[in-house]
Amino acid sequence: MAALETIPEEIFLAIFDHLGCHRYNEKAFLPFAAISKRWQRAIERFPFKSFKLNNTQLSTFASLFQGAARAHRKALVRKIDLTIELPPYDGDDCHQHEELNNQIFSTAIHDLFQVLETFNEDEAVKANFTRGVGIEIRLSSIESPKDEDIPYADKEYKFQGTFIKLLNPERLPTLECVTSFYPIAWMWSRRIDPVAGIQMASKLKNLNRCITYYRDSWECTEGGTKGVKEKTLIDNRHDFSLALSNYTQSVKDLSLRSDSWSGCMPDEAMPPPKFISFTSSTDTFSLAIHEFIQRANVSDISICGLLPYSSDILWPYKDVKDAPKPLWPNLTSLCISVSAHTPDGDWYFKGDPALASDSEFMGPNDRKYINDYFRVSDQPVNMFRSIPVPERIDPFLKAMALVIRHAPSLESLHLCFGEVKLRPGYVKAEGLTRRFSIYYKTPGDQFWFDKRGHRRRPRIICDVGNNWRASKEIEQMWMEALGPNGLINYHH
To answer: What's the domain of life for this entry (predicted)?
Structure first.
């Protein structure tokens, strides 16, 4: 009989695969690891493939890889799912330990990064990376045990107004083993400071894919105490812009998501927040994203969640000669969801003058209900803006033409203001919607609005309401960008 040490590892794996236990319980084979070192190496690949950890387990996690006899395990890790447990608090004061919560979160992130830093020089980990295999990190939730006592419907409201911050992000070590990063904590979790996801991602040298959230909620109050104040919104955008500007790594695929109320205002008679100072005409937030795509060699980027952007996100240049050559050389796909209002406190849309005047749509000036704006489920709604304002929307459409013309690898561009069912509060108008999305597709890229034969042509598809058409100037710019075989298709 052959000694266990001489049996090929492939036979071990074939036996394990035949038994199939590891598909349901990856720890089922652990008792067999004591038979021999060969068995240990073959068996450990199953339980070490994926870890679900909380911050109290990080020291134990680190010990699994310490010493020469355990170093081989580093190359087995494929996924780490981290939960941060915060301390209990008194009564319903869920923000009682704000500074302590920041410290606990930051310590957990620093500890995890320090463990993974030891993977950088491991030859087997490096070999994995050359084969396109890396580690995925997912931040699942940040919660206190007391959070379970908060009624489910109240959690989002309770957690508004504060963010868990990452302290001393500059001290994080640079990691080479992580290729996917998802600091997206589920929606009823505590909210991470929007900048923290980018700060962590900037320390991942070989990052391919990242999904991060930009969460904020704006409550339209003057001096109120609930929600996120306008100053905090402005500070968040400034800090996020700065983090993007300081980002020096590459990332192939980025998704920036948001559940931001700052981009979706149920009362469209209210003045939107202003994110641009009186002394500047540039939205630094939009500009930072534009420059990030160029600097980080992004191939695919999706920006979801109705945050306010300006056309600077597509084309911030006064003249074509000012643009980098080539522009966004690796970018193949870009999708941007834009709010109905502008970063400088204006609107991209207006009320339909065929239905009512502006003053009729806006209703009375007295907004006594505003303090409970985001608190009650039957909150007052006055959404009436359905008609694009040319002087505000046209710069976006012109910028789109310039990007199509100058981004050499671009295959798909979606500029989505969305389709929203409107509810005017003071004017009777049934079935009123705001529908405005513009799509660019290269030949061969199928789209659901394509008619027979359209797929073979470069095209711009306008999924718009109110029989809207672009101006002749913009249509001409689009056709010049599309080329002689180009097509503009209106879907009303």
So the answer is: Eukaryota
Tens of pLDDT, residue by residue over 362-409, are 988 765 544 444 443 445 688 999 999 999 999 999 999 999 999 999
Please report the DSSP string for 87-156 in residue order: PP-STT-TTTTHHHHHHHHHHHHHHHHHHHHTTTT-HHHHHHHHTT--EEEEEEEEE-GGGGGS-GGGHH
Q: What is the pLDDT of residue 376?
A: 37
Mean pLDDT of the chain: 86
- Is there a single domain that holds both residue 240 and residue 387? yes
Tokens of 17: 């695969």
38, 187: one domain: no
User: Which DSSP symbol is given to 438?
Assistant: E
The number of distinct structural domains making up the chain is 2
pLDDT at 224: 37
Which of the 8 DSSP states describes residue 187?
T
CB 311 within 8 A of CB 396: yes
Beta bridge partners of 291: none
Q: Alpha helix (H) ranges present in 210-354?
A: 230-245, 284-295
| Whether residues 68 and 117 fall in one domain | yes
Read off the pLDDT of residues 307-333 as tens digits, 9 standing for 90 and up.
899 999 999 999 999 999 999 999 999
Report how far apart, in Å, the C-alpha atoms of 175 and of each of 2, 113, 116, 250 are.
Answer: 43, 7, 7, 13
- Quick one: pLDDT at residue 378? 46
Q: Where are the alpha helices (DSSP H) in 407-471?
A: none
Higher pLDDT, 470 or 192: 470
Q: Are residues 42 and 96 in the same domain?
A: no
Q: What is the C-alpha to C-alpha distance for residues 248 and 156, in angstroms, rounded to an integer? A: 34
Residue 148's φ and ψ, nearest 5 degrees, are -65, -20
Q: Is the dihedral of CA 379, 382, 386, 387 positive or negative?
A: negative
Q: Are residues 27 and 131 in the same domain?
A: no
* Range of lowest pLDDT (46-50, 108-112, 167-171, 251-255): 46-50
* CA–CA dist 349, 386 (Å, integer): 6
Range of the domain at 184: 49-491
> Do 233 and 302 belong to one domain?
yes
Residues 61 and 115 in one domain: yes
Amino acid, single-letter form, for residue 473: E
Average pLDDT over residues 239-257: 93
Contact 201, 251 (CB under 8 A): yes
What pTM was computed for the model? 0.87
Separation in Å, CA 428 to CA 80, 356, 413: 53, 9, 36
Q: Flag whether pLDDT at 138 surpasses 90.
A: yes
My answer on whether 36 and 132 are in the same domain is no
Whether cis (ω within 30° of 0) applies to the bond prior to 326 is yes
As a whole number of angstroms, the distance between CA 307 and CA 348 comes to 13
